[in-house]
Amino acid sequence: AQRVTQPEKLLSVFKGAPVELKCNYSYSGSPELFWYVQYSRQRLQLLLRHISRESIKGFTADLNKGETSFHLKKPFAQEEDSAMYYCAFQGAQKLVFGQGTRLTINP
Amino acid sequence: DAGVTQSPTHLIKTRGQQVTLRCSPISGHKSVSWYQQVLGQGPQFIFQYYEKEERGRGNFPDRFSARQFPNYSSELNVNALLLGDSALYLCASSLIFSGRDHSPLHFGNGTRLTVT
Fold first, then answer.
1. What's the burial of B16, exposed, middle or buried (CB within 10 Å: 0-12/13-18/19+)?
2. How far apart are CA A53 and CA B71, in angstroms?
3. Mind telling me how many Å the CA of B14 is from chain A's nearest CA?
4. I need a surface site. Which of A31, B13, B51, B86 has the fewest CB within 10 A?
């Protein structure tokens, strides 16, 4: 079955500390993976995609096919990173989302 | 900001009623997708339309239907509402039909449907 698992519903870290949001996927083909973010009172929006191999707002994510993971990382958390984060993969004609992780950055 | 617009923002219906939700995509976007987001869960795919044709359908009953108009706006209809249909319904538009070549989804603010 096609599935995305985000094991942590809630994650709280202090400002300046490293952040890692976990994502594991179950997909038989070659996945195309994404992280979407929703800041308070804003729309769900694309943060980054694995094929771009880019760093957005200091976040990076590496696809590990052996571990079927796509964890999101940032070395030094900032208060403005507090948001809801969703991992997703591109299935046929649709995105399959995980249930999300609410990240809170404490001052 | 001419983003994806959805109407209405909130809606309260009773069981058995029917509801129509509306979505206007970003200008130039030809693909519209609908997602259901139940509290505490990630968005779940309902439909995708491209060039007025259904291109994908999620695991939802036939009570759910949608269409896309010549101006690329879209409607989602849900008949015989159940309590379990209470959710945030998100519309997303993209430039092209996203197969392997992913065109990022641009989401609206959603319509919050409450069924009592």
1. exposed
2. 35
3. 27
4. B51
- A45: chain B residues, CB-CB within 8 Å: 106-107
Per-residue pLDDT tens over the stretch A22-76: 999 998 777 789 999 999 989 999 999 887 778 889 999 988 888 999 999 999 9
Note whether B28 and B40 are within 8 A (CB): no
Answer whether A96 sits within 8 Å of B33, measured CB to CB. no
The token duo for B110 is: 């959603």
Q: How many helices (H) and strands (E) does chain B have?
A: 0, 11
User: Which range, of A12-16, A36-40, B10-14, B96-100, averages the lowest pLDDT?
Assistant: B96-100
| B33, B50, B57, B107, best to mutate vs chain A, most A CBs in 10 Å | B107
Residue B109: CA count within 13 A, CB half-sphere: 12
The closest of B110, B112, B98, B106 to B3, measured between CA atoms, is B106
Please tell me the predicted confidence (pLDDT) of residue A75.
97
**CA-only gyration radius of chain A, Å:** 13
**Two tokens, residue A23:** 């994502």
Contacting B with CB below 8 Å, chain A residues are 4, 6, 9, 32, 34, 43-46, 49, 86, 88, 90, 92-100
**Chain B contact set for A94 (CB, 8 A):** 33, 45, 48, 56, 58
